[in-house]
Amino acid sequence: MAEADGISSATPTEELNGVGNLMDFLDEPFPDVGTYEDFHTIDWLREKSRDTDRHRKITSKSKESIWEFIKSLLDAWSGWLVMLLIGLLSGTLAGVIDLAVDWMTDLKEGVCLSALWYSHEQCCWTSNETTFADRDKCPQWQKWAELMTGYTEGAGVYLLNYFLYVLWALFFSFLAVSLVRVFAPYACGSGIPEIKTILSGFIIRGYLGKWTLLIKTVTLVLAVSSGLSLGKEGPLVHVACCCGNLFCSLFSKYSKNEGKRREVSQGNVSYYFPLKTLWRSFFAALVAAFTLRSINPFGNNRLVLFYVEYHTPWYMAELVPFILLGVFGGLWGTLFIRCNIAWCRRRKTTRLGKYPVLEVIAVTGITAVLAFPNPYTRRSTSELISELFNDCGALESSQLCDYINNPNMTRPVDDIPDRPAGPGVYSALWQLTLALVFKIVITIFTFGMKIPSGLFIPSMAVGAIAGRIVGIAVEQMAYHHHDWIIFKNWCRPGADCVTPGLYAMVGAAACLGGVTRMTVSLVVIMFELTGGLEYIVPLMAAAVTSKWVADAFGKEGIYEAHIQLNGYPYLDQDEFTHRTLATDVMRPRRNEPPLAVLTQDSTTVEDVETLIKDTDYNGFPVVVSHESERLIGFVQRRDLILNIKNARQKQDGVVSNSVVYFTEDAPQIPASNPQPLKLRRILNLSPFTVTDHTPMETVVDIFRKLGLRQCLVTRSGRLLGIITKKDVLRHMAQMMNQDPESIMFN
Q1: For residue 442, what are the contacts with CB-CB under 8 A and spacing of at least 6?
Q2: Which of 71, 190, 568, 743 is the most core-located residue (most Cβ within 10 A)?
Q3: DSSP assignment of 129-150, as one string?
């Protein structure tokens, strides 16, 4: 593809007719040529061609001198340097966010007197007065009511702690939504739908900017600490992409090429994934993991958030409840997507969307008021999931581990047999059931508000609660009915047969899969979060089942649904199976004005300016003449505007009547004629073309895999029409009985 960052030189007029100088554009490229406007789509093939030309130029110059050779080495290693910087900054921000969230979440309930910056757990770590029975209580940590009144029990103490908990939650959420609204509106939401769209080639200026990075980092801590049913994993993807964009601006190799810039962020949400990007993403992940390990935000010297270590293997018969959890995850995912999209659509189309601050305050208030009485909803969602994943050992003091022990038991502490549930377990089951209903409902209204909000942790919490309940039920059935045929072969009396924590982990994977429709990557994510590599089969069974069940009600995951709701121009990976042709989609249609084109040697500057003024097309085909309509190439609108503007300012003799030439050489002209303007160098001589009888299935595949901005439709070399990405998306929407005009696309 021809590079569009400069204009070819001209032959002096005196060589043609002996009068004056025929000037073409300056040979040196000038700013903004080849760039894109906001809310436009990039041309991947063009960006690839520009990078190839740049690399070829650097390689040829590297042989001229030692300095040029050093510059070529620096250019080759700049990609690895960018990845190193991204890994360092992303890992540091992730660690700082985790530590800040832990501290501010505990701040709602109390404060550490020995060190104000310590969380509850850190405060009691340093205490020498903590007992095993009350490991979470230490004199250095005091709740607000105890600090203010000196009392630790009583109705007044409870109500005061209740009030301050709600007050802190409202303060954190108000501060978060205010910062987003005033300083960085793009910092709201999870960011994954927008990141997927940007990586597919769409331009959203400022979405990955410095202010967005700063505000997203700060408000993510505030939003999660407020106790709202949201997570930080999705927004961290946005933060990492902002880090990538920040460092890309330091290297011209990336800052001047939109295609190369997108390679840097593709380790998180890939649309097109070259092999070299895979290795660089691996390197960035390695650096980020090393940085996170150095910070040790989880306090367990491990890189995983929910480290698990079960002492009992799973059995084939347990695949039945695992698959049932997969069914639950698929149904939950379908319910959540439909309800959340309906609520977000209502937010966009009614007056509710005009009051984002009030909405956040209201949802936070309801969440805090309902969450405080239940200990499983009062704590942070990450702590809840961690407790649900844990196996009940001899040292556990959780209500979930309140089993009736056999006083004659002499087994080692890590091999405790199944036991009958005690009153604490039954009390916990009721509280978990209420927590499950609460999480299911409140998450629907929380995701999509104008604050940073991730969905991984809330979805995992719903699945983990359901899984733990199922796990305890199976465990008690196995204990009381070990002679049943389903338990007889693998669960003997006095044996440790069922691990409820494993069911919680499987349920978490199932619900997360039902919402996001991930399978392979979901299992990998669960490995990353838990370190439970040996439980790959239960996780895969639940993930695949949840996807099958959810897909039966609709193919879209939550992020694809939000992309469609917002009208982003994103081509998903679903197959296009309708039997239509390129001629059915191309423009112009019947009864429409003819296609706006430029001729190679008979269009004046005034004609071009008039065409640009009267239309809003991103580019124009260039033909031999209006009569033959034989295709020559394609020229971008922005390049025309910049080149003509630059010619009028810097080139003498270019007037409205000057003829624009896209040919190799301008013909000899009389001395009395205005000087011509040669724009050959901005002409793409190899635009992508299809015939009018090409199946749309093939056209959609071409647009998706090559990242095309547009393609031209021809018959025997004669131009018939054009198909843009917008036309493809509208046609796909129309074929799915959706509104084709809902796509936000220029």
Answers
A1: 229, 363, 366, 367, 370
A2: 190
A3: ---STTTT--TTEEEHHHHHHS
Helix (H, G, I), strand (E, B) or coil at 94: helix
Tokens 């009028």 correspond to 648
Question: What is the 3 state secondary structure string of 175-238?
Answer: HHHHHHHHHCHHHCECCHHHHHHHHCCECCCCCCCHHHHHHHHHHHHHHHHCCCCCECHHHHHH
d(C-alpha 51, C-alpha 75), whole Å: 12
Model confidence over 168-204: pLDDT tens digits? 999 999 999 999 999 999 999 999 999 988 988 888 9
d(CA 699, CA 702): 5
- pTM across the whole model: 0.84
DSSP state of 632: E
Q: Pull the structure tokens for residue 456.
A: 């991984």
**Cα separation of 519 and 499, whole Å?**
23
3-state secondary structure of 178: helix
Whole-angstrom Cα distance, residue 550 to residue 703? 28
Quick one: tokens of 416? Answer: 């405790």
Interacting residues of 37 by C-beta distance below 8 A, sequence separation 6+? 203, 638, 746
Phi, psi (deg, nearest 5) at residue 499: -115, 100
Q: Identity (one letter) of the amino acid at 69? A: F
The two structure tokens encoding residue 460:
């995992």
Q: By CB neighbour count within 10 A (0-12 exposed, 13-18 middle, 19+ buried), where does 671 fall?
A: exposed
Question: CA-CA distances (angstroms) from residue 150 to 92, 141, 153, 154?
Answer: 39, 13, 10, 11
What pLDDT is stored for residue 10 in this prediction? 36
Residue spans of the chain under pLDDT 50: 1-31, 132, 268, 410-414, 745-746
Distance CA 30, CA 27 (A): 9
Choose among 684, 710, 432: nearest CA to 582.
710
Q: State the number of CA atoms in the 13 A half-sphere of 285 facing the CB.
A: 13
Pick from 464, 496, 312: nearest CA to 389: 464
Q: Tokens 């990492």 correspond to what residue?
A: 240
Report CA torsion sign: 392, 397, 399, 405.
Answer: positive
Q: Where are the beta strands (DSSP E) in 530-605?
A: 598-599, 603-604
> Measured between alpha carbons, how far apart are the two ends of the chain, in Å?
23
**Which has the closest alpha carbon to 523: 348, 538, 94, 106?**
538
Pair 724, 709: CB distance under 8 Å: yes
C-alpha to C-alpha distance for 594 and 407, rounded to whole angstroms: 91
Question: Which residue(s) pair with 141 in the sheet?
Answer: 112
Q: What is the DSSP letter of 740?
A: G
Tokens 């739908």 found at: 193
d(CA 271, CA 263): 9
